Amino acid sequence: MVAAVSLLVLTGCSSGDGTVPVPGRSATTAPAAAASRDAAPSPSAAPAKGSVKVVSTLTEGLKSPWGLAALPDGDPLVSSRDEGTITRVDAETGKKTVIGSVPGVSPGGEGGLLGIALSPSYASDHQVYAYFTTASDNRIARMYYDEKKPAGQQLGAPDTVLRGIPKGHIHNGGRIAFGPDKMLYAGTGETGEKGLAQDKKSLAGKILRMTPDGEPAYGNPEANSVVYSVGHRDVEGLAWDSGKRLWASEFGQDTWDELNLIEPGKNYGWPDEEGKAHKPGFVDPVVQWRPDEASPSGIAYAEGSIWMAALRGERLWRIPLAGRESAAAPQAFLKGEYGRLRTVLSVGGDKVWLMTSNTDGRGTPKPGDDRILLLEVA
Q1: pLDDT, tens only, 331-367
Q2: From residue 200, how far is each of 23, 127, 167, 187, 333 by CA, in Å?
Q3: The pTM is what?
């Protein structure tokens, strides 16, 4: 295993606002979620102040890593945006093994092989889902992972479950995750064409919700559509809290990055509004930050808080929650310590993995980049 990093407990700054992405509510959970709305912090609110301890470096030497998923035995799978490969990392030794390439990936700009997720029935079907950019679109496909085959040949042929998500040099979204309802959620970007975010016929600038086969999920705003929410600029983070509420992180333009509580059929404002506008018909973010403090990608929920990885901001944000609201001002940890931060994933209890993103063409790689860190959070 890569040598452990010295244990650090860092105090956070409180400038800016933020929260973590969470899976959306299904028709069966919506009434309960609506009934539990908190107008103010409750006794169960997360503590105002938290902590982060870097326990160890799980692995180093990753190239343009983007997606991260945990196998049942604890080993992580990592997608490489630019190489189009998926790598398995031994959770004990940090050894990296490329399990295969995803055919059809066409990297360029912010596109390539992006988010990955395991089927909710992975124990029986061994399906790995991936969101990726091709020569013509962004799409989601699933592949059978056969660990018995030789390294590099363990991924089966892609079975496309959803195609036709608009692609661009920028704003391809890319985060996918299965929610508590076992439906597949995807965050997309508006590709730089702002109007697509408000076009309900387009899959760009949206959060999508579908069955594992890519069909519109029961309880969606429109029965024949996978569109779950509209008015997004570029969603790269999705996570659910303990109340099964879905949160999403979103890149703003020049003024405000956002952490949003996602509800079906709601409009989150882009490009008409950015940040908290208090305008009828649009949902304001729960927390907002200046882009130089955030530029958020992945999020995760752990220990009562949303943990948000910041790229340009080069820090990990903690957003303590109290139901549907933030319980206190966000705290920033690891500021400038590890460069750009791409993905954060809860791996049980107070443990999370944090993945850096310094080899993506916009960072300044240091020896060992990119890496996965094991954190203990509170």
Answers
A1: 999 999 999 999 999 999 999 999 999 999 999 999 9
A2: 20, 30, 16, 15, 38
A3: 0.89
